[in-house]
Amino acid sequence: MKPYIPDTLPLAQLDYARLITPVGEANAKLAEYSGLLQGIVNPAVLLSPLTQQEAVLSSKIEGTQATVEEVLEQEAGQHFDGRKSADIQEIHNYRKALLLSQQHLQGGGSISLSLLRQLHAILLDSVRGQDKSPGHFRKQQNWIGRAGCPIEQATFVPPNPLQLPDHLQQWQHYLQQQDFDVLAQTAIVHAQFELLHPFTDGNGRIGRLLIPLFLYARQRLSSPMFYLSATLESHRQEYYQRLANISRQGDWCGWIQFFLHAITQQAHTNLLQVRRILALYEETKTQIREITHTQHSPQLLDGIFDRPIFNASDFARRNRINKQTLQGLLRQLSQGRGPLTVLRQGQGRAPAIYAFPQLLTICQGAT
pTM of the prediction? Predict the structure, then answer.
């Protein structure tokens, strides 16, 4: 099989009549979601579990097996076996890359090849794939197929590495152009990146990370917190098939339609989830105030939403509450009708671990 030669962007021929309806539906639903985000004072804190869920699901598409609860439990001090721990480290790396990229754009930066190399280095830090040139575009020909198959039996062979730098420059130039619709352009940006397959490993995760970044950079999101991996994971077979149809049949329209439907579906899901999170936030605010009668109510509230599984020592440090004071407050909040449960009692130097089940239940709706 010969290396794939990517189409020049912007695409010369598209059946725009097929795209009018899905473009309109996706733009309307995403605008509704962005409007809801705009009304949230601190979305990074309030919607932190959704960011965790994105890191879990985008990594799951690539084969990791860990849950949001396990990731948070390890952060809180629980120990897991070697394979599970390695999976969790990959998810940690993805979340770190995701947050760094968001901060980069919010600070006035742009999406560039340099940024992608930086994110790739974070993604493969100290995990499987760390021997696959972290932070560097590939210098060798790679291919996709069943494990261990020769290139002759590959299902897809990305572009020749000698031509890759030129293709990447053209792709980066397309990021700065205005195409017929921003959401359709996002579909094209993501697919072209995946077809270029510029890294030896980690292309899927970097490509999915690009989606909220591009939408935010083009001001289609008031905050770069729109993650598509839940929908792509639930339609994984079609996701890969639609990408394959571009290289095999030149079917860009079919891919763009699929992607726009995914945006519509995910935005609808996000609207329901975020409204439930906001309602829970208000309910829990009242609950904490009535149970504790403390001046630390705001820190307690934001703290359990930012990290719905935590250990007491880390919570005290992050939220600047005296440890002894916090112990009494957490005891109150984990008794009777309080919002917290105790996952592990404190013993010796090992601090107690608490969970906020209602928030975790809402975020599990992403799967």
Answer: 0.92
